[in-house]
Amino acid sequence: VVLAVMLPCLDVALGQSTDPSEVDALGTIKRSLLDPMNNLENWNRGDPCTSNWTGVFCQIINDALHVTELQLFKRNLSGTLAPEVSLLSQLRTLDFMWNNLTGSIPKEIGNITTLKLILLNGNQLSGFLPDEIGNLQSLNRLQIDQNQILGPIPKSYANLRNVKHLHMNNNSLSGKIPSELWRIPLLLHLLVDNNNLSGPLPTELAKAPALKIFQADNNDFSGSSIPATYSNIKTLLKLSLRNCNLQGAIPDLSAISELGYLDLSWNKLTGPIPTNKLAPNITTLDLSHNMLNGTVPLNFSGLPNLQLLNFQNNTLKTITAAFNPPQNVTVMLYGNPVCGNSSVAPIDSLCQPQSVNQQTSKQQQDSSLICSPCPSDKNYEYNPSSPIPCFCAVPLGVGLRLKSPGITDFNPYEGAFGDSTTSLLKLYVYQLHVEHYIWEVGPRLNMHLKLFPSNTSLFNMSEVVRLRHVLAGWEITLPDIFGPYELLNFTLGSYADEYPNEASSGLSKTAMGGILASAIAAAFALSAVATVLIMRRRSRHRSRTVSKRSLSRFSVKIDGVRCFKFEEMARATNNFDLLAQVGQGGYGKVYRGTLDDGEIVAIKRAHEDSLQGSKEFCTEIELLSRLHHRNLVSLVGYCDEADEQMLVYEYMPNGTLRDHLSSKAKLSPGFGLRLHIALGASKGILYLHTDANPPIFHRDVKASNILLDSKFVPKVADFGLSRLAPVPDIEGTLAGHVSTVVKGTPGYLDPEYFLTHKLTDKSDVYSLGVVFLEMLTGMKPIEHGKNIVREVNKAYQSGNISE
């Protein structure tokens, strides 16, 4: 009966079509465009939403299909943007980046109240900015940079209460920067550089509640000074006012606690350089080509991130012998009287004419590995960062540009960029390779990335679609130091032939889900009474079962292991106070706690995704309770109550081995202590493999899972990924491995396990060997694209192992 009713309903639901007014609007939009590459040739066939028109994405809204995204990024389109785009009443993303559109931005866009992203940068648009865009209360990002747009910035844009990014640089905008823009409560980035703006800088920007980047280089604020009130922009990370015809003194900006980049070069600033110390985040201070006088101040020591001090071509006359900026900082004094007057010995090296030393391109890593050629049927390449040497895979190419980075030298930050980008994209670090980068005028950092699949030669197409959608839709936000980014290209390569058929143009998953839901609604309506009766009956049975299960939780007793109540755990951690948190991992958060008897413990509180059934949890506790060794962290107890599962371990006051190998460690262990730690960790792993009952493979041996007690006795920790080792069968035969899904940490993974999914005791031994290399070299397993095993092997083969 259910099927008989459902099938006709499904036919009706799948017969839904796009709103007719939106179909007409898309037709008009196409007719206003020139499409020499025929990218939009399928816009003449079928329904926009159900026939997967290129770049058209839809959802069901109010029981009808509507276009919600128009993504025509880099399609070699020209012509104009038709006003009929406003008939797409549910549009959220309007993306025509990197085409050749001409004409003006239609004022009718201001009627699309659902718009969140307007992405029109990289075209040849002209005319004035429409006031009506100020009506878009849902707008998050307005990118109209790199066009030929004229006229003033409309004051109405101060009404954009949800906008975070105003990117209007590289146009021909004129007039004043509207003082009203400070009222935008969420505005993070205001980029208006390379225009024809004039008038005084708006003092009211000092009241902007969230502003992080204000970049207004290469405008003409003739006669204007830098408002002293800008020191009140507490959130400001970057202030760049280069070549703006500014006059007067430099205000004291030392109160801006997050300031990391200050460029006031090529102006007419006078007076001394302020002597108060800038924020510790500062990387770049460029005051060159002004009329500053007096003494070079001494306030640049103790700034750990400083990269550049550029004071060239001013009238600075003196410098003291105490001038001592941090090492590796580029200091430029050429063109100042101090270079001819000073008797300070090191001054000569600072007075040579030079330009800012920005590395123009990343050098390829040399490798002595000899690899056989990759297959030639697709664009296979070796992944330089792969834990498996000579592993061939087909990458995706990504062109990315940092539009306003807060650094002068990218090299020290490449590792942090890789870590954050892969984490945001939900990839492993070794899946990203920065092939090359180059600094452009701005300065902006143009880079070409390659994304490699993990543990396989090819991405599946759903992953390709996901990655493109995340990058093109600005669904990730890079750390502040890198500023905003823009996607320049997304090169499919060997995936191009399959991509059009797999991409989610047309119906989104939500829309398809809505169609299916409406199709089966009638079927559920017919069976509702029977379903409710059955569910009620089962619910009563389940309630009895749950009650029994809850009671059984507290009846489990394991010798030597304490069972704690939730209230005891909350009391021990001051109700899981953030200050008590000492770590976080795949299992959950780790807290330092003090039990009622005064014992200090580490409490691992499982997050929701890690919760197990009570029986399985107790089985794991029973297993852990059998493990007793000087070099294993001891289990003190557990809590299994009120949808909470916690493991309580002895507390290790000296943290992890990784903490002590870090370059930021206050005290680095000597060779003798390192040898002591290596031997202890080895004994702990050996116990798990040979003496534990049953034997256990750890599966995630790494420096951060080796803890150190008050006497620096090493103890292996974190068995959250552990698997039981094979045991002899009834005939005494012992399997050599356990087949399992690959788990562990990149850089420590055994290559054989990575490829075959066969876990053996040798997998743990390999990982422990990587830890030993860390202890000997100080390197991380994967850092700046270098794999520690590969680097040590190269040094050994070249005879430079002692280096």
Automatic annotation (TrEMBL):
<feature type="signal peptide">
    <location>
        <begin position="1"/>
        <end position="15"/>
    </location>
</feature>
<keyword id="KW-0677">Repeat</keyword>
<keyword id="KW-1133">Transmembrane helix</keyword>
<dbReference type="Pfam" id="PF00560">
    <property type="entry name" value="LRR_1"/>
</dbReference>
<dbReference type="Pfam" id="PF08263">
    <property type="entry name" value="LRRNT_2"/>
</dbReference>
<dbReference type="InterPro" id="IPR001611">
    <property type="entry name" value="Leu-rich_rpt"/>
</dbReference>
<keyword id="KW-0547">Nucleotide-binding</keyword>
<dbReference type="InterPro" id="IPR032675">
    <property type="entry name" value="LRR_dom_sf"/>
</dbReference>
<dbReference type="Pfam" id="PF13855">
    <property type="entry name" value="LRR_8"/>
</dbReference>
<keyword id="KW-0732">Signal</keyword>
<keyword id="KW-0472">Membrane</keyword>
<keyword id="KW-0433">Leucine-rich repeat</keyword>
<keyword id="KW-0723">Serine/threonine-protein kinase</keyword>
<keyword id="KW-0067">ATP-binding</keyword>
<keyword id="KW-0808">Transferase</keyword>
<keyword id="KW-0418">Kinase</keyword>
<dbReference type="InterPro" id="IPR000719">
    <property type="entry name" value="Prot_kinase_dom"/>
</dbReference>
<dbReference type="InterPro" id="IPR017441">
    <property type="entry name" value="Protein_kinase_ATP_BS"/>
</dbReference>
<protein>
    <recommendedName>
        <fullName>non-specific serine/threonine protein kinase</fullName>
        <ecNumber>2.7.11.1</ecNumber>
    </recommendedName>
</protein>
<dbReference type="GO" id="GO:0005886">
    <property type="term" value="C:plasma membrane"/>
</dbReference>
<feature type="domain" description="Protein kinase">
    <location>
        <begin position="576"/>
        <end position="803"/>
    </location>
</feature>
<keyword id="KW-0325">Glycoprotein</keyword>
<feature type="binding site">
    <location>
        <position position="604"/>
    </location>
    <ligand>
        <name>ATP</name>
    </ligand>
</feature>
<comment type="similarity">
    <text>Belongs to the protein kinase superfamily. Ser/Thr protein kinase family.</text>
</comment>
<dbReference type="InterPro" id="IPR008271">
    <property type="entry name" value="Ser/Thr_kinase_AS"/>
</dbReference>
<dbReference type="GO" id="GO:0004674">
    <property type="term" value="F:protein serine/threonine kinase activity"/>
</dbReference>
<dbReference type="InterPro" id="IPR013210">
    <property type="entry name" value="LRR_N_plant-typ"/>
</dbReference>
<keyword id="KW-1003">Cell membrane</keyword>
<keyword id="KW-0812">Transmembrane</keyword>
<keyword id="KW-0675">Receptor</keyword>
<dbReference type="InterPro" id="IPR011009">
    <property type="entry name" value="Kinase-like_dom_sf"/>
</dbReference>
<dbReference type="GO" id="GO:0005524">
    <property type="term" value="F:ATP binding"/>
</dbReference>
<dbReference type="Pfam" id="PF00069">
    <property type="entry name" value="Pkinase"/>
</dbReference>
<feature type="transmembrane region" description="Helical">
    <location>
        <begin position="511"/>
        <end position="534"/>
    </location>
</feature>
